[in-house]
Write a structure and sequence with these properties.
The complex is a heterotrimer of chains A (363), B (394) and C (281).
Chain A lengths: L3 E10 L8 E9 L3 E5 L6 H9 L6 E6 L2 E2 L10 E4 L11 H11 L4 H14 L15 H14 L4 E5 L7 H18 L2 E6 L2 H7 L2 E6 L2 E6 L1 H6 L4 H6 L4 E10 L3 E6 L4 E6 L8 E6 L5 E2 L6 E13 L4 E7 L2 E8 L13 E7 L4 E4 L5
Parallel strand pairs in A: 3-8, 3-9, 6-7, 7-8, 13-20
Antiparallel strand pairs in A: 1-2, 1-4, 4-5, 9-10, 11-12, 11-14, 12-13, 14-20, 15-19, 16-17, 16-19, 17-18
Helix pairs in contact in A: 2-3, 2-4, 3-4
Chain B lengths: L1 H32 L6 H5 L1 H9 L8 H16 L3 H11 L3 H11 L7 H8 L6 H9 L7 H5 L3 E3 L5 E3 L7 H32 L2 H16 L2 H11 L5 H8 L13 H25 L3 H9 L4 H29 L3 H6 L7 H11 L3 H25 L11
Antiparallel strand pairs in B: 1-2
Helix pairs in contact in B: 3-4, 5-6, 10-11, 10-14, 10-16, 11-14, 12-14, 14-16, 15-16, 16-19, 18-19
Chain C lengths: L14 H28 L16 H8 L1 H34 L5 H13 L2 H14 L6 H25 L3 H9 L4 H30 L2 H6 L7 H11 L3 H31 L9
The chains are: A alpha+beta (363), B mainly alpha (394), C mainly alpha (281).
Bound molecules: adenosine-5'-triphosphate and magnesium ion.
């Protein structure tokens, strides 16, 4: 797969000439791909999208779409569909009027317009609502109209900026699946912005994790989750235990990290860390087993500080390795229902589950 | 790109800017300039002006100056242009008009020196002080109108002194204008507050009716409303008829042409301007704040004082400023229903423009009125959120 | 008052609240009664403006419509009002769009200059225009009156339209561009329809301002240019006949008509264009 549709080449952006919002962004998006830009608030996701859509000019660098340099192409000639967070439906036009707008701009005749509007409305399951005004629709329906409008003129590329942000949880999950299906059906390239990590992980082919105007990691959801490239990605995605220590011994793949109280933990090594350098162990709570889990595992005795009940699972806050905030997650498949606060229990995890990353002064 | 956008913007703004400039800014500037301009004497009596230029202020000027003054004045009178000169000098000191006219009438029979003849006619012609006044009036600028509009004038030696008591009317006028505006503003604020509050808590259907009843007078012309009061408050008007028929009074009560009538009509005209901004502010105060205060143990009146009043203050401020600003410039209403002691600055600006023609004073009063309004607008601009975006009519 | 604002439960209104209702009711009557009183007076069969009227008749309306002076004043008012509305609405809307588009220093100053006539006391404007219009030979002409009224009413159009432009979601323009509309198409298809209610409201304000304006007319209109307010003022000063009440009623009806149109525009805008936000009544 190498058929790039969008190429960002060292894009920088500053709104005021003083603060840099994007620092030399490189990003290649493949045709037909579903790429999500994920990152904390203010990290530059919207700015990236606005530059791609042509609503903002980059301060430096180039973007191309299908091999064509975009820098000086005005937004209305780029042929990129956009779904806005607040939908930006034209309030004075009916739903059908909104959908008809881009087709009229392309000079498409009445008959074909009507047919395409109908198809688009059917696709988002709004068939009978064409004559309504946007103000007469629910939030979810407006969202569908915005989606249909961005797709009806068959753009090669569709951008969505937190399109589901205003919907309630249930509707959001429903729409995630629908958008995913529409993407698969139409084969359109989609760039999607969100700060909801589960949304990013479930929907995308690839995720670009943003922080402070830089892409921290660009990879498939599984890679992002299982093999975070650095401590920021590790802590931003999913729940995460962080233990700080120094590298005691290492080989090509694994290392032993010594915590402050002397405890040593064996884990997978990410990045080139010399012996004696400061490092962070990142470990997902759901990888921690209660009990012993055999060879190649780290096994410790931990004290239960707190039990937090979640219905389908329970979280344990443990004292381990000098920290009292070590989290483990158990679903009681192992039958250990009678855990008590204050009890001491064995916990363990495979050395492949823990990742040792370079220590970063941040957050 | 940027410049093309600005060019377009400039092209769109230009026609209106030009119109407002030509038919408002320039006339306004020219009018306000009249407050300091002093051109009557120097344009109508140019030769005399030039001669006085040479006079050093010691003793009396030359015979030639006397002659030129009389000749130019006579010429002006024949062309009906003497009025401004006489007014201007009389404004400098009351009585100069008749002295000049007397001299002019007598000058037909003069033989020999004008100077001696005139001094014989009226010894003031030989007073260096008189000539000092004439010289002072040759311009090009004078502080006199501004001084006079705050009851001051220039004394003989050029010092600023208070005007004589019978001429000192302007400070009183400003105080009166201020007083009337303040009273009207206070009444409006006090009445508008409970009204706006009620309207903001009534069920929507009732609120709509109430707001309609506020908007109808708001859209009805001020003159029509003042006329209504003018009719109602007549001696034979409906109110007196009612009072008499109920035997509450024996004689018709005099209401028209009183301060009471001015207050009544002005409050009626301006009340909607106070209600509407207050209503919109109060409509925006969520009941949750008051509920929260109640849950925190504040009794009713403290909730009101500590929570509701401060939150509604912006509405009071913008309404009151608006009412005060409009009151200060009121003209028609006091002119129609007020007595002679109830007229405000605007009335005197009109009076000095039309009736007793003294455009300098009219301009000085106008400038001071604008200054007062300007200060109010500045306060509103700085203090009242939303003032910048809001118009007078809503 | 404080207690009253917490409708925790639907109880019988407290004494305080009843008092509040009563005060409000009385004040509302105070606001409308003087306007209402003019109606029966204008229908009086007698010569005097007294209540109760000695009987009812249309004679004063007949008098109005048979009087050369009142008819001329009506005609003048409409001519001046309509011309003022056309000029003020056109120029005001264009300038508002210009101020919205422009990205240059001094915008605030220009806006302040253009709104100056709104905060200047009318008497000051009136004498300024009196002096300058007579100086250029436009005193005692309808042209002069139209110019003056345009200057007085244009700030309302400007500010109303500008406010609606500023309330405008800039994402709508981005959306239009992303859907392929060039700037001109965006303007005609998106901006213009959305500011139309504001333009219409501005036009109504402009007309009402001109139609009600008296002070400038006092200075620059001679009898041939008398407008309705000017003629009414002259009438009050000369002889208070019920014809004036009839004229007042006609003016009131027109004002209420304008108000109703404005309300209809507002309702339409709220329903079809604006999200239900905090627009004032
Ligand atoms: N129009 C603007 N003018 C000036 N600064 C801006 C502008 N838009 C965004 N910024 C700044 O640029 C930075 C990146 O903003 P951006 O909107 O791209 O963030 P984001 O990742 O989309 O955040 P969020 O998740 O909150 O939407 C922020 O620091 C923001 O303050
Ligand atoms: Mg964003």
């Amino acid at each position: 797969m190498s058929d790039p549709i969008v190429v960002f080449d060292s894009i920088t952006k500053s709104y005021d000439g003083i603060n840099t919002v994007l620092h030399g962004l490189d990003l290649t998006i493949e045709r037909g791909e579903f790429v999500t830009l994920l990152g904390p608030s203010g990290s530059g996701k919207t700015t990236t999208l606005m530059i791609l859509a042509g609503f903002e000019d980059p301060s430096g660098g180039t973007i191309s779409l299908d091999g064509r340099l975009l820098n000086h192409v005005p937004a209305h000639q780029r042929g990129i569909g956009v779904v806005f967070q607040n939908y930006a439906l034209f309030p004075h036009m009916s739903v059908a009027g909104n959908l008809s707008f881009p087709l009229e701009m392309q000079g498409i005749g009445r008959a074909e317009r009507d047919q395409r509007i109908k198809a688009a409305l059917d696709m988002v399951k709004l068939g009978p609502l064409g004559e309504r005004r946007p103000s007469e629709l629910s939030g979810g329906q407006q969202q569908r109209v915005a989606l249909a409008r961005a797709l009806v003129f068959q753009p090669k590329l569709v951008l969505m900026d937190e399109p589901l942000g205003a919907l309630d949880k249930q509707l959001r999950e429903h729409m995630q699946i629908e958008i995913k299906h529409i993407h698969e059906q139409l084969g359109v390239t989609l760039v999607y912005v969100t700060h909801d990590q589960s949304e990013a992980l479930t929907m995308s082919d690839r995720v670009a994790v943003f922080n402070h105007g830089r892409i921290q990691q660009l990879a498939s959801p599984a890679t992002i989750y299982e093999e975070p490239a650095n401590a920021f990605v590790a802590s931003f995605i999913g729940e995460n235990n962080r233990l700080v220590g120094t590298i005691a011994t290492r080989d090509a793949t694994y290392c032993r990290m010594a915590l402050e109280d002397g405890t040593q933990i064996e884990a997978r090594l990410t990045g080139d860390l010399a012996i004696g350098s400061k490092a962070v162990l990142s470990l997902r709570p759901e990888r921690v087993m209660v009990g012993d889990s055999g060879p190649n595992a780290n096994t410790f005795n931990a004290r239960i500080e707190e039990l937090i009940y979640f219905g389908d699972h329970t979280k344990l806050r443990l004292s381990l390795g000098g920290s009292s905030g070590f989290m483990a997650r158990t679903s009681f498949k192992d039958g250990l229902r009678d855990l008590q606060r204050g009890a001491s229990i064995p916990v363990s995890w495979s050395r492949d589950c823990g990742r040792v990353l370079p220590f970063m002064e941040q957050e | 790109m940027m410049t093309r956008r600005n060019l377009l913007a400039a092209a769109l703004i230009a026609p209106l800017l030009l119109l407002v400039f030509v038919s408002f800014i320039v006339p306004l500037g020219a009018t306000l300039y009249r407050a300091v301009e002093d051109a009557e004497i120097s344009t109508i009596l140019p030769k005399t002006t030039a001669l006085l230029e040479q006079w050093n202020g010691e003793g009396v000027p030359s015979e030639q100056t006397y002659l030129s003054l009389m000749n130019e004045l006579r010429e002006a009178q024949e062309q009906q242009k003497a009025g401004p000169v006489l007014n201007r000098l009389n404004f400098e000191e009351t009585g100069l008009r008749s002295m000049l006219l007397q001299g002019l009438r007598a000058s037909g029979q003069f033989s020999g020196s004008y100077k001696q003849n005139l001094i014989a006619l009226n010894p003031r012609w030989g007073d260096p002080h008189f000539w000092g006044l004439v010289k002072r009036s040759t311009g090009p600028w004078t502080p006199l109108y501004f001084l006079r509009s705050v009851d001051l004038k220039l004394g003989p030696n050029g010092a600023v002194v208070p005007t004589a008591d019978e001429e000192a009317v302007f400070i009183k006028l400003f105080i009166r204008t201020f007083e009337i505006s303040l009273v009207v503003t206070l009444i409006c604020a006090v009445l508008a507050y409970p009204m706006a509050y009620t309207l903001s808590i009534l069920p929507q259907a009732w609120t709509n009716i109430g707001i309609m009843l506020v908007l109808i007078p708001f859209w009805t012309s001020i003159l029509v409303r003042t006329t209504a009061w003018f009719i109602i408050l007549q001696r034979e008007g409906p109110i007196n008829a009612l009072l008499l028929s109920l035997h509450l009074v024996e004689q018709p009560v005099t209401m028209i042409f009183t301060r009471f009538a001015v207050y009544l009509a002005m409050v009626h005209v301006l009340l909607p301007f106070a209600i509407l901004p207050l209503y919109s502010v109060m409509k925006g105060i969520k009941p949750d704040y008051m509920r929260a205060a109640a849950s925190l143990g504040a009794p009713g009146w403290r909730r009101f004082l500590r929570i509701y009043l401060p939150l509604s203050m912006p509405g009071v401020a913008s309404g009151a400023l608006m009412v005060f600003m409009l009151s200060v410039g009121f003209y028609i209403t006091p002119a129609l229903v007020g007595g002679s002691g109830d007229q405000m600055i605007s009335y005197f600006i009109a009076f000095f423009t039309n009736t007793s023609v003294n455009w300098g004073i009219a301009a000085a009063l106008a400038a001071l009125l604008m200054g007062m309004t300007g200060i109010l607008v500045a306060i509103a601009w700085l203090l009242v959120p939303g003032f910048r975006s809001g118009g007078v009519r809503v | 008052m404080g207690t009253a604002s917490i409708p925790l439960s639907r109880q019988r209104p407290s004494t305080g609240r009843l008092l509040l209702y009563a005060v409000t009711g009385v004040l509302l009557v105070f606001l409308v009664a003087p306007i209402a009183v003019v109606f029966p007076l204008s229908l009086s069969a007698g010569e005097l403006l007294v209540l109760p009227t000695p009987g009812y008749s249309w004679r004063w309306y007949a008098d109005f419509f048979n009087s050369q002076r009142w008819l001329l004043a009506t005609y003048n008012s409409f001519v001046v009002g309509i011309l003022t509305t056309l000029i003020a609405t056109t120029l005001g809307t264009l300038a508002a769009i210009g101020l919205y588009l422009g990205r240059f220093r001094g915008k605030a100053l220009i806006l302040a200059l253009l709104s100056l006539p709104m905060v200047t006391p009318v008497i000051v404007t009136a004498i300024a225009l009196y002096f300058s219009l007579s100086a250029v030979g436009l005193g005692s002409t309808l042209t002069g009156l139209v110019l003056a009224h345009t200057v007085l009413s244009v700030p309302y159009v400007l500010l109303t339209v500008l406010a609606s432009l500023q309330a405008f979601d800039p994402n709508l323009l981005r959306a239009a561009a992303s859907l392929g509309a060039n700037p001109v198409q965006s303007f005609y298809r998106v901006v213009l329809p959305l500011i139309t209610p504001a333009v219409a409201t501005g036009a109504l304000f402009a007309f009402a301002t001109s139609f009600d304006e008296l002070i400038v007319a006092l200075f620059i209109a001679s009898p041939d240019q008398f407008t309705l307010p000017r003629q009414m003022y002259a009438g009050i000063r000369e002889f208070l006949s019920p014809t004036i009440a009839a004229a007042a009623v006609l003016i009131i009806l027109l004002s209420v008509f304008l108000l109703m149109i404005n309300e209809a525009i507002r309702k339409h805008a709220i329903r079809h264009i604006l999200p239900p936000t905090d627009r004032m009544p």
